């Protein structure tokens, strides 16, 4: 009598492997989406810093004052000689609820504490006024906020809210 050996997997085994694979895929996609949103926020902060430093250097070299105007309603800002920059999707000016402003800083309604939402660099590299902060937040990631500050001397600094403190 000839016995045929049974090779392969049962339907139950296949369904269990498929369920585990699907679960891992869902977790991976969610994690990947959060990472993309985090990168959008970080990139937006870095782009603003880069533009501020570029304009400051241009103003010092050319000797002509250069204003950068922020438009919070349109999620844009204007850079002299470059044009308008638009924030990435899901990124906006402002603070998330529950995130405090930087220590010793004014809490702006629109996320920009510069007078008339404008930073003007002078030919000596300083800015007009007392300085201020531009807050960026990501609507899709809980507690992620970035603050880009410029002080009177023209120094530009970025800080991130980690859920407990500004770093």
TrEMBL record:
Q: Which InterPro entries match?
A: N_methyl_site, Pilin-like
Q: Which UniProt keywords apply?
A: Membrane, Transmembrane, Transmembrane helix
Q: Where are the transmembrane segments?
A: 12-32
Source organism superkingdom: Bacteria
Q: Which is one Pfam family of this protein? A: N_methyl
Q: What is this protein called?
A: Prepilin-type N-terminal cleavage/methylation domain-containing protein
| UniProt organism field | Candidatus Manganitrophus noduliformans
What taxonomic classification does the UniProt entry list for its organism? Answer: Bacteria, Pseudomonadati, Nitrospirota, Nitrospiria, Candidatus Troglogloeales
């Amino acid at each position: 009598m000839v016995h045929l050996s049974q090779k392969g997997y049962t339907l139950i085994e296949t369904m269990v492997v498929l369920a585990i694979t699907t679960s891992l895929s869902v977790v991976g996609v969610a994690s990947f989406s959060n990472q993309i949103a985090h990168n959008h926020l970080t990139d937006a902060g870095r782009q603003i810093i880069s533009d501020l430093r570029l304009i400051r250097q241009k103003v010092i070299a050319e000797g002509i004052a250069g204003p950068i105007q922020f438009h919070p309603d349109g999620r844009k800002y204007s850079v002299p000689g470059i044009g308008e920059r638009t924030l990435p999707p899901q990124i906006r000016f402002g603070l998330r609820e529950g995130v405090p402003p930087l220590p010793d800083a004014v809490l702006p309604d629109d996320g920009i504490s510069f007078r008339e939402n404008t930073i003007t660099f002078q030919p000596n590299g300083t800015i007009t006024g007392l300085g201020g902060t531009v807050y960026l937040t990501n609507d899709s990631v809980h507690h992620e906020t970035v603050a880009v500050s410029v002080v009177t001397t023209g120094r530009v600094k970025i800080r991130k809210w980690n859920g407990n403190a500004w770093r």
